[in-house]
Fold this protein.
Amino acid sequence: MRIRYAIPALTLAVALIVLSWGTDTLDDGQFAVQGSLNGQAVESPNADIVDVPIVDVPEAEPAVSEPSAGPADETQAAQEQAVPIAVGGGSILAERRLVTYYGHPFDERMGILGELDQETLVARLRRAAALYEAAGSSRPVQPAIHFIATVAQEHAGSDGMYRARTPASVIEEYSRLAAENGMLLILDVQVGRSTVQEEVSALLPFLEQPHVHLALDPEFDMWADQLPGIQLGHMSAAEVNWTSNLLADIVARNRLPNKVLILHQYTASMLPDKQLIETRPGVDLVVVMDGFGGRGIKLRHYEWYVHDELIQYGGIKMFFRQDVDLLEPADVLALDPSPDVMVYQ
C-alpha cells in the first residue's frame, strides 16, 4: 500500500527560515535558522488517517526546561567524566547509549547547542547522561555534541547548492571540546541540492578522528527543482549505503571504533526505499524518530519508523521548546525498543 503525506509548505518539522546572504560558508550571525511547525496529515501503515495538530512555536520563548533530576545529584552529575572510547573498540552502541545536544553555535534557534556557552554545554550534557543512568539505563550513557556542520539554505549561494558549510575552524573547536571532555562529536549534514557524496567527503578530515561520527538529514536532501524548507526532502538507500561503506572503510583503515551513522526520519517518504538500507561491520546505523508534538504522535511515529522498521539501532529526538509534555528519561527508556540514541534539540 502506498503511504500518502500532505505537508503544508510552512509546516515542515524543522523547517528553515533563512537569514543568509547566500554564501557557501557560514559566519557568525550570517546564516539559516531552523524553527518548525509540525502540521501533517499522515496516512499510517494501517491506512488510518491521523491528523497531527499544528504546534505553534510561542513568540516569547520560555526558559529551556530539562527532564527532572529524580534521584541523581545534580552537582555530582555535572562533574562526572564520560568514559573515553578505546581505539579499535568495536561497536559503540552495543556497549552504551548516546545522549546528544543538537544545534549550531551561530544561532540559538537551531537547537540547544546554540543556546549554551561551551562550559555550560559540557556540564549539561554530563548531567543529562547521569539522569538517564539514574533512570535505569541498562548501559552506560555517553554524552555527545550534535553539531550541524552543513546547513541547508533557502537561497542558492554562489554555487547553487542551497547549503552552507560551517568553517573547518569552528568544527575543529567543537571537536577539541568533545575530545578534551571525553565526549563524542556528531556532525550533522543537510545537503540541500548538493550530494551526500560531496558533503560527507568534505568532512573526511574530521571523520578520521576516533571520536567523530555522522548524521544525515533526509529532510534537506533535495531534488533539482526543490527548495529546502518548502518541499520535504528524501534520501535513497544508495546514498545511505555509500556513506556507511565510506565509514566502514575509515574504521578498517585506521583501526577505529565503529562509526555511528544517524538517519533522521519522521515520514516514510524521507527514506523511500528504507528496506534496501544495508548494515555493515564497522558502522552502528541508527534511525532517529524526528519531529515534535504531543506524546501521542511522537510515540506513534516511533512505533512506525523504529519499532516496525528497525534496521539496527533506534533513537528519538526531544525538543525542549516545541514538544508538548517533554518525555522524561524513564519514559524514553521504557519505549519499545528502548532507544540507543536520545537527541535533544
Remarks:
- The chain has one domain: 5-54+74-344.
- Residues 237-254 form the longest helix (18 residues).
- Helices lie at 74-79, 118-134, 168-180, 196-201, 204-207, 237-254, 295-307, 329-333.
